[in-house]
Amino acid sequence: MKLLNWLENLKLYKKIIIILFSLLMVAFLNYFYYNYQTLKLPENEKFYEVSYNQEKEEEDTMTVSFDLENKYAKYIIIEYQTTSENDFTVSLTGNSSNTYGDLEDTKYTDYCYSFLHKCGFYLHKKIGAEELTFSQKNVEILSITVDNTSSFNWVSFTFWGVWVTLILVLFLFKSVWFKKLHLLAFLLCISIGTVFLVCCHNITSTTFDDETHFNRVNTFITHSKSDSELESRLVIFNYLRTPQEKKEYQEYLNQKSTEVIEDNTNTNLFRLCNINYLPMAITVKVANTIGLSYTTSFFLGRVVNLLIYSIVIMFTVKIMPCYKLLTLLIGILPQSIFLASNYSYDPTVTAFSLLAFSVFAKEYHYKDKKIEMKSVIIFVLVCLYASFPKMIYSLFILLMLFLPKEKFETKKKCYIFRTFICFIFLLCVSSFLLPTVTSSDIAGDPRGGATSVSGQLELMIKNPLAFVKVFIKSGILTIAENLVGPSTFGLLCHYGGMLIDTGYYLVLIALVLAFISEKDFPEIKFKNRIIMLMIYFCIICFIYLSMYLSFTPVGANVIKGVQPRYFIPLLLPIIYCFSSKNVKNTISYENSMIVSTTFFIVATFILIYFTIIIPYCL
To answer: Which of 115, 287, 403, 487 has its CA 20 to 30 A from that of 329?
Structure first.
C-alpha cells in the first residue's frame, strides 16, 4: 500500500511521463519480439517466392509440396484462383522448429474464401519439408511466397498497451477512480471493450447468431453486394490470420459495397423486438452517407454498441445506493463487454435491466424519501427498453410494487401507482403470451432444428409428466451453473471461454469480497425477499420455457438454446436479496475495491490472452 500511495502522490507531469514511457517500452518490445528474427536475415531471405512440386490430385483434395530446408519463415502466403463458388480450407503439414530449435511434426489450417486470391499462415519459426493440402481440387496456385519483412503487430500492441496503461492509470489516480466508482466502471468497460474491438476480427463471425443480428441492423441500409457476401459467411466462424488476407478481404468488401442489389428482407427495425438495433443501424447508415468505407462503417457500429453499454453501466453504478462495487464487477463481466463490442442486443438487455434495478434499489433503499415522477418514468422506460427483445424480463417491472406506502404522499396515489405498474406489466405479458396461446400454428426458431411452438405445447399437454421431468433435468438443476458458472462469467462465444481455472476463481473471489465488504446494507423485509426471489425464479423458468418452446425440436428430451448470458441480468437482483448486516469483515472498503478490481482485471487478462491472443493474434 505504501508503494500505491507513493505513486498516487507523484506530480501530474511525472505520472504522464511514466505512462508514455511504459507505452513506448511496450511498443519497442512488441516490435522486437515480432521482428528480431527478420532483422538478422539477409535481404534475399526477407521476401522471396518458393518453388514447389507438381500438384497431386486425389479424390476430393489437391496437394503440393515444398522444402525451406530449415529456414526461418514469418508468413507463408499462397496466391490462388478457383472456379468454384464454395469456400474451402488449406492445411500446412510438415516440420517446424519448437521452442528448443528442434524440428517436430506440425499442422496448421487456414480458411479460404472463394472470391479472394490469398490465404496464409503466420509461423514465426524455422520450417523444413511441407505439404499444402486443399480441400477441393479446382484450385490453381499462382505463387507461394515467404514474407519475412518487418512489420508492427497492432493487435498485440493494443492488447499489452491497454492493460499496462489501465493498471498505471488506476494506481496513479487511485483516489479519483475509487471515490467515483461510476467513472471507474466506464473506464473499465471502454478499456476492455477496446481490446475486443481491435483483437477480435472486424469482418467475420465472432458472436453467436452474428448473421441474424447483422441482417437486422442491415435492413435499415441499402443492401449491397458486400452485405450479401458478409451475411452468407457470418454463419461460419473463421479467422484470417495474416494481415495480407485481412487487407485483401477488406478491400474486396469496400469495393463491392458500391454494387447495390435487390433487398428482399422485410425486417422492420421499428418493431419493439428490433428497436434495440436502431443505434447501430443509424450509425452505419450515417457512416455510409458521409462516404466512409464499408469496413469502417461496420467497425463504427460495434463502437457505438460498446459506448452505449459503457454509459448505461456507468449510470447504473452511480444510481445504485449500495453494492456499487458489486454492481461494477457484474457490469464488466467479460462476456457482456465482448457482446457489447459486437453486433448483439444481449448487452442492451443486460445493461438496461441492471439500470432499471438500480433505480428501483435507490427508491427502495431510501424509504423515507418521497418517490418522484421522474424516477417512475425512468424506471418504466428503461425496463421496457430492456424487455423489448425478450419480454420475459418485463417481470422486473413488478419490483416497484414493493415500494412502501410511505413513499407516496397519499394512499390514493399509492394505489394509482400500483395499478399503473400492474397495467404496464400485463400489457408486456400479453404481447408475447397471447399470440402463443391463441395461434394454432406458430413456427419455432429454425436454427434449433425441427421446432414448432404449437407442436411443443401440444406435446406438453399430452405428456405433462414427461415435460416436468425434462424441465427439471435440463432446467431447474442447471440454474446454479448458469448463474455462477464459468460460461456466465467469461464465455467469448466462438473463441471459447473461461474454464474452472485461476481466472474463474479470481472472479468468484472478487464478487464475494465485493459482497461482504458492503457497509450500507439495504433493509429488506423477509416477506419481500421471498417474493422477489420468486419473481426472479419465474424469470429463470420463463427463460427455459421460451427456449423449450421456440428453439428445442419437438420431442427432444433436453432444452436447447439456453445461453448463460441470459442469466447475467439476474445476478445483482438475486445477490441483493441475500444482503445482511450480519455479514462483516475487517478489510477496509478501499482495500476491498483495490483487491476486487485487480483480481477482476487479472482474470479478464488471462481469459483474453489464452482464448484470443495466443490462438489467433500471435
So the answer is: 403
Q: What is the DSSP letter of 72?
A: E
Type of residue numbered 321: P
Helices (H), 200-293: 210-218, 225-233, 243-256, 278-289
> Closest by alpha carbon to 510, among 484, 473, 491?
484
What is the per-residue burial (b if ≥16 Cβ within 10 Å, else e) of 535-565? bbeebbebbbbbbbbbbbebebeebbbbbbb
Pairwise CA distance, residues 533 & 530, whole Å: 5
**Which cell goes with 33?**
519480439
Contacts of 229 (CB under 8 A, 6+ apart): 115, 252, 253, 256
Q: Return the C-alpha cell found at 610.
A: 489464452
What pLDDT does 94 receive?
86
Summarize pLDDT for 455-486 with one digit per residue, the tens.
Answer: 888 888 888 898 889 889 988 899 999 999 99
CA atoms within 13 A on the CB side of 183: 10
Q: What is the C-alpha to C-alpha distance for residues 504 and 490, in angstroms, rounded to an integer? A: 8
Q: In this structure, what is the dihedral angle of CA atoms 205, 207, 212, 215, given to the nearest 10 degrees?
A: -60
Query: How many residues are given for the chain?
Result: 618
Residue 395, all three cell numbers = 417481470
Contact 480, 540 (CB under 8 A): no
Cell of 299: 467497425
Residue type, 160: W
**Which residues lie across from 443 on neighbouring strands?**
452
Q: How many CA atoms lie within 13 A of 268 on its CB side?
A: 3
- Residue 277 near residue 213, CB atoms below 8 Å: yes
Please report the pLDDT score of residue 368 as a whole number. 82
The string of pLDDT tens digits covering residues 551-609 is 888 888 888 888 899 999 999 999 999 887 777 677 778 888 888 999 999 999 999 99
Q: What 3-state class would DSSP assign to 117? A: coil
Eight-class DSSP state of 69: E
User: In sequence order, what are the beta bridge partners of 131?
Assistant: 65, 93
CA contacts within 13 A on the Cβ side of 464:
1
Positive or negative, the Cα torsion across 270, 274, 279, 285? negative
- Domains within the chain, CATH numbers bracketed: 44-147 (2.60.120.260), 200-304 (no CATH), 320-585 (no CATH)
Sole residue written with cell 457500429: 301
Q: Are 372 and 331 in contact (CB under 8 A)?
A: no
Angle at 471 between CA 470 and CA 477, to 5 degrees: 100
Query: For the whole model, what pTM was predicted?
Result: 0.91
The pLDDT tens digits for 182-219 are 999 999 999 999 999 998 887 777 888 777 787 778 77
Under DSSP, is residue 532 helix (H, G, I), strand (E, B) or coil? Answer: helix
DSSP state of 543: H
d(CA 16, CA 7) in angstroms, rounded, equals 12
Closest CA to 607 of 199, 271, 203: 199
Secondary structure percentages of the chain, helix, strand, coil, to 5: 60, 15, 25
User: Which grid cell is 5?
Assistant: 500511495
CB atoms closer than 10 angstroms to residue 6: 9
The secondary structure of residue 393, as a DSSP letter, is G
How many angstroms separate the CA atoms of 314 and 188, rounded?
A: 10
User: Cell numbers of 488, please?
Assistant: 456466465
